[in-house]
Design goal:
This protein is mostly helical. The protein has helices at residues 9-25, 37-50, 55-63, 86-98, 102-109, 111-121, 125-128, 131-139, 146-153, 158-170, 181-185, 190-193. The chain has a single domain (9-193), classed as Hypothetical protein af1432 (Orthogonal Bundle), CATH 1.10.3210. α5 crosses α10 (158-170). It binds fe (ii) ion. Fe (ii) ion is lined by residues 40, 64-65, 168.
Length: 196
Amino acid sequence: MDASSEPTPAISSIRSQLAHIFAQHGGDLYGGESVTQLDHALQAAQLAQQQDRPASEIVSALLHDVGHLLHDLGDDCAQRGIDDTHEEAGAAWLIAEHAFPPCVTEPIRLHVPAKRFLCAVDAGYHAELSPASQLSLSLQGGPFTELEVAAFRETPYSEAAVRLRRWDDLAKVPGQDTPPLEHFLAMIDSSLLNPQ
Ligand SMILES: [Fe+2]
């Protein structure tokens, strides 16, 4: 990434639209947790960066819950028994509106299946989930069956989705210091949007 180079008008527009969405909805509580949507996004991206993952995975972590910011169902919709299918909505929106590539959008689309996968293959995982995450799991279909586990392993970007899932689960620390949103938005550039 070269954050110092001048972004094209198209890249600037994507960054400012995303900044606008976070400015409008990022202060909402992250459903049932004690951090805001913006805090959660920044912490997830910070964890990806701390593990030296590529920009595509850092941006994926930043935007993994953008689907929660695109609807008016309320930040407590899971508590009201509604699955907002934010993983599908967020990935579809990032593709349709901004032509993000699969290396960014597929881990996002798969981060809920990754939770169902981990519940099936990691005996201690379910107990470590927050109560809100356990509640949404039941709305999302519960742990995968053996067949679903096998199919998930064969799905492109499933390993990136599992990494994203782990950051998602950890990115709920009240008061955690993170880089600002602009730091991560600067990673959205031509090379990210047009990977070789
Ligand atoms: Fe999340």
